[in-house]
Amino acid sequence: MESREFLITGFLTILVSLSGEVVHSTQVSNRELSKYDNGGAFDFTWDIAAQHDQMRDKLREFVWQHWREKQMGRVVAMFHSIEGDPTTYTFYVEPDVDGRWLVVSEYETECCWFYAMDKKKRKRKIERGVEIYDVVVRQANVKTGGDVTEEISESESREPNSYRLRLGKASKASNSAVPFFL
Fold first, then answer.
1. Domain interval for residue 73
2. What is the pTM of this model?
3. pLDDT for 150-172, tens place per residue?
4. 3-state class (DSSP) for residue 73
5. Count of domains for the chain
6. Cβ count near 129 (within 10 Å)
7. Residue 12 within a domain
8. Given strand 163-168, what is the order of strands in its sheet?
9. Would 5 be classed as within a structural domain?
């Protein structure tokens, strides 16, 4: 009888621990989420495309404000490919061990929904990773027909719909890395 109670207790413990927030192996194990401002979650599904601009503005503003003010923050954004495959980004604005401020982007992408339509069923591919950005720059939304961008100074006040954020890497070794735009 005692072994049955032990088994049930163990099962319930596992069930409760799995019902919480999913923590990927790529996450920093000692990150205390209670110290982070919660920016919420944004799901950019195609059926609410009319709301994407407003949602992106809020996401952009949260990341920029926390970067500029050196405040720890966490926000989640889920984007979908045109086929419907989701990629979830969790953005952490935080200092590294040396006190340099970063935007850490942990992502999980799932591909490909159409695998379920194959006669020979294939598993969807799941990819996880981390990108670390040490440069966050606001760029004005300039419509010139070219790739001209105007950088906005940190002290200048702007509405989030008038700029985009470019997350990048300062090191010479990572210049080939593609920046992330919000």
1. 32-181
2. 0.75
3. 888 888 888 888 888 989 888 75
4. strand
5. 1
6. 11
7. no
8. 151-152, 135-140, 163-168, 180-181
9. no
